[in-house]
Amino acid sequence: MPRRVLWNDPRMNDLARLVTATSLPPSVRISEGRSALPRIDVSSAAARAEIYFQGAHVAAWQPAAIREPVLWMSERSHFEAGKPIRGGVPICFPWFGAHPANPAAPAHGFARVRDWRLIDVREDRDGVVALDLELAGEGLSPEWPHRFTAIHRIEVGPTLRMTLEVRNDGDGAFTFEEALHTYFDIADVRGVSVSGLEGCAYLDTMAGGQRVGPSGAPVRFTGETDRVYLETRDACVIDDPGKQRVITVGKRGSDATVVWNPWVAKALAMPDFGDHEWTGMLCVETGNVNVHTRTLQPGKSHAMTAIIEVRELNR
Ligand code: BG6
Predict the structure, then answer these.
(1) Active-site residue, 138 included
(2) Residue whose CA lies nearest to ligand 1 atom number 9
(3) CB under 6 Å to ligand 1: residues?
(4) What span, in angstroms and rounded, lies between the C-alpha atoms of 97 and 229?
(5) Residues 128, 214 contacting (CB under 8 angstroms)
(6) What is the per-residue pLDDT across 48-98, written as a single tens digit (0 to 9) for each?
(7) How confident is the model at residue 1 (pLDDT cuts 50, 70, 90)?
(8) What is the atom index within ligand 1 of the atom nearest the CA of 262?
(9) pLDDT band at 12 (very low <50, low <70, confident <90, very high)
(10) 181 is a catalytic site residue
(11) Rg (CA), the chain
(12) 252-269 confidence digits (pLDDT tens)
């Protein structure tokens, strides 16, 4: 039976504005996350997950049948209001990377540093929990003053399915970029390969955005890598022999895939990233960025979905 939300702890009063869902299943709890940043904890028969209200940020996900966490989180991440969380799945929206006209505007847009509201939670018979978080408004940033509603639907189960739906509530068209900037926990980036992008050209950020390829081969990593793969429609498969597992990143409504690992120098330069942590992470990001921006007419909406699955090879 779903349970009503009960705000019986005074510290939780502040959180009431973040939750408009009228009931939560017993597998879902609102808690104080790291550094007291409010969080949603999911622990069902199917999987467990941690989701911060700030950024509707999936910080952890682990299916019940999988032995180790799937998403990577930096030990040096900030957990602080207004600062991006380094790991899990940041939402980049409504621009990707630095803002083109204002380098002082938040990198990757404002969505990852705003509080989202939990508007609905459901659990099915198999313990798959679906949570809808909303960010809506007008004029949330001078760089992107449009009226919009964004819903991030997170389905926590043996599969992690995340759908970012954006609706134009204003009177004129708007254009945006978006990405589900997924950090994966891997044994060693120097030993993994990513297939599914062999037939796609990419823009190489390491070479000033120059267009390269297609390479015809799986991606392997020998140095700092920062690429926007274009017209990517297929799933990406991360083969991780060190952890003896395979992660599949499927998608819908997305034309770009960003692949990123900072390697040595950039890791040293980022204050919220451990100096040696770069070996154990890899970002494969589902997006619509760069030449693949989206434009929405008034009243129209667009949905983009990332579908993450994990298979352990020695079980
Ligand atoms: C990647 C970008 O998606 O995110 C990189 O392609 C960037 O260029 C990285 O460095 C991390 O960005 P941030 O803003 O979270 O430090």
Answers:
(1) no
(2) 260
(3) 84, 97, 107-108, 181, 205, 226, 258, 260, 283, 285
(4) 15
(5) no
(6) 999 999 999 999 999 999 999 999 999 999 999 999 999 999 999 999 999
(7) very low
(8) 10
(9) low
(10) yes
(11) 19
(12) 999 999 999 999 999 999
Mean pLDDT over residues 291-315, rounded? 96
Which residue did the predictor score with more confidence, 195 or 8? 195
**C-alpha 13 – ligand 1 centre gap (Å):** 35
Ligand 1 atom at minimum distance from 86 CA:
15
What is the whole-number distance in angstroms between the Cα of residue 97 and the centre of ligand 1? 6
Distance CA 178, CA 167 (A): 13
What token pair was written down for 61?
A: 């996900």
Q: What is the mean pLDDT of the chain?
A: 95
Instruction: Say how many C-beta atoms besides its own lie within 10 A of residue 71's C-beta.
Output: 22
Nearest C-alpha neighbor of 71 from the set 44, 57, 89? 89
CA distance 118 to 115: 10
In sequence order, the 6+-apart residues with CB closer than 8 A to the CB of 280 are: 72, 185, 186, 187, 188, 189
Q: Whose CA is nearest to atom 14 of ligand 1?
A: 107
What is the pTM (predicted TM-score) of this model?
Answer: 0.96
